[in-house]
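Support request, please re-run this one:
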Amino acid sequence: MERSIYLENMTWQEGLALMLERLGQSCVPRNEYIDVRHALNRITGEIIRAKRSSPHYPASAMDGYAVRAKDTFGASEREPKWLEWQTQAIEVDTGDPLPEGMDAVIMLEEVLEKSERGILIQSPVVPWKHVRSVGEDMVEGEVILTVNHRIRPQDQGALLAAGILELPVRCKPKVGILPTGDEIRVPGTPLERGEIVDSNSTVLASLVEEWGGESKIWPITQDRPEELEEALLAMAKTQDILVFIAGSSQGRDDYTAKIIAKYGEVYLHGAAIKPGKPVILGEIQGKPAFGIPGYPVSAYITAQLFLEPWVKHLLGLQKGIPPTVQAVLAKKVYSGLGSDEFVRVRLGKVAKGWIATPVSRGAGVTMSMVRADGILCIPRFHEGYQEGETVTVELLRSLEELEETLVAIGSHDLTMDVLSSHIKARGGYGSIASAHVGSLGGLLALRKGEAHLAGVHLLDPETGEYNISYIKRFLPGKDIALMNLVYRTQGLMVAQGNPKNIRTLEDLVRPGIRFINRQGGSGTRVLLDYLLKQKGINPEAIDGYSREEFTHLNVAVAIASGSADVGLGIQSAAEALGLDFIPIGEERYDLAIPREYLGEPKMQTLMEVVNSAEFKEEVLKLGGYDVRDMGKFIL
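Re-run finished. Output below.
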């Protein structure tokens, strides 16, 4: 076995180039013959030429009458001319073979009169008028499709017309996928503490199918070298590309690199990317082998960077250049030097142009890929981008779809997700791209022209009024409409059964009570500080006051998981996680919308949904909401 090359933190481009250099000449596309009728989306393996001309006989191009052109000469409006049946005129339909001796067709509507004698015409025709000559469409031997062409429905039609029933196409690369790990469980299995469902296998298999390959998922294999090796050798017998999920880092149970090195060669272990740094590139028995990190986002990103080019290579293709868009960054993103970082963003088009809002950046945050509209790459020697900078975003959705997206930046509420779902259900591409930065953050986004609307619930301690004074203070001179969405119940969320017997805000300062807070600038935080001041409670006396989350659901999850005992939030979030809830009071949650956007079709759709009975009914089912003023304009 050759000496392994262990290159820590190489750029991903260098790692991929190294692998293609080592294996690209020996791992090449192979062809197979298949029925044209089953060839949709397959890649041609050779130049395909017509086996016959089409049409292979002179054919009528119109419904009408086949004639000899010379018999029509002399016909005019003053002196119409009769053409006798059979000898001078024969009725034909479009596509009929041209009768022997005839060389033109007269359309039905050009005939003055039709009788038992024949047809009466008033103008002559030239030879081959309305006749499809032999080979008009394609000529025998003509190139129908080039090599490495993805076959479309119209291509299938042309192939069959050219007399081709079978054709050579690229064999679909067979990709074996091996999920590994003692903690990994088959989907549908009840999970114990510390166990993880195997979702990566399905994602990678579907990506392979999308790229044109053929995937096979092996049974989950535990972190035992002998079992991993057995599974590896079984995959290598039948598969063209070998993928190990997890076990690619340098922990106690990470054996992937050692096994690849034992049966082949490791080209790269550790790329300068984030997420996905522990990726492994190598070969086993002359076949490409990958160690894909186990975190879901890492798995997706590394598959796109390294696995897709290899699937395409074995199809005779190159990975295409994804479409991009220039967008203004809604908030700053920092990145450590040394690695290319791939940040997921949401996109929407407002007056300033395209706005990109970063979503969760953790390698294990699966929903960040679901919510993402695009990927922002921060180069390895760049510390990040400032808010307001123009950046290049690689698109994950079409611009047509994103054009109909409403950008909502502000306070989090569960009804916003329901609202987006109802907009989507009306057809088209409409949806809401939400960024949860708190009510004040939402107003600032409106001030900078970076959002269509902001969810706000800011209590003015002096007047007891919601939102209006803040809009006047932070958006002077801006023509803002304020529409009520819901009234919602705020209160203390606690574990089921309330084991710590928490009843009032005064209980937050008791020893042993762990609080979890919302971020500064959120309406919930403003409300909490207002209530604490009213009761004379020092925030510094609350264990966890400085621990912050950006959504009500994240607060509820922290309590449900046992990492916190209590948090202030909305009743619907507590009910969603099965928590107990101690009501404190009702607050008003409004949507602040610049009036310039009210006339836009996508905003009109939002208004229609807000005023629909179906939407109101679903909001009420969430619990803790009152819709008495839903859709009512306060400003």
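The longest strand covers residues 480-494. Residues 183 and 195 are 5 Å apart (CA to CA).
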